[in-house]
Amino acid sequence: MVHAGKEQINEIIKLSQTNAENYLKAVCSYLCEKNPKFNWTGVYILNGQMLNLAAYHGEATEHVSIKLGEGLCSLAINEDRVVNEADVKGNGKYLACFINTNSELVVPVRYQGRAIGEIDIDSDTKGAFSKEDEDFVGLVAELIAPVVSMLYVES
Ligand code: SME
Asked: Pocket residues for ligand 1 (CB within 6 Å)?
């Protein structure tokens, strides 16, 4: 391919990634706005042995990159299941982000049968998340999966 063509292809890839991140950020903000017990919502994407924060709404966290194996976020990926912790302070696997967090819901985002990322929600309320919330966030995960896949790098 001619050089100018390659440059355009790279630019078009960059455009889709920037727009994917903006879309995920808007989804996180919308979820927090509509669900008052969602005090922080983020989307982590699997990249090799790391979970990288692609978008979030709420306070900034130091956990922008989580090593696979650490925290409840890793549990959801490694065991490919929803993690609904009613009392994070009583869970030794919990990776603390915010002093006020009392419960956390982590829902895998699956694409073509594989967990490639997750939606992570923190709540200041103990036991904030019901089975209904799990199902609802599961539907959101299905909806955003094609967009998350744009940011997923297969390893
Ligand atoms: N608490 C998570 C870490 C991410 S923060 O909640 C934003 C965990 O235990 O993996």
From this structure: 42, 61, 63, 66, 71-73, 94-95, 97, 104, 120, 122
Total-model pTM = 0.95
Beta-carbon contacts of 114 under 8 Å, excluding residues fewer than 6 positions away, are none
User: What pLDDT, on the 0 to 100 scale, is given for residue 2?
Assistant: 64
Computed over every residue of the chain, the mean pLDDT equals: 96
> CATH classification of 2-151, choosing from 3.30.70.790, 3.30.450.40, 3.30.1330.30, 3.30.420.40?
3.30.450.40
* pLDDT value, residue 3: 74
C-alpha 105 – ligand 1 centre gap (Å): 10
pLDDT-above-90 percentage for the chain: 95
Task: Ligand 1, residue 95: give the atom nearest the CA.
Answer: 9
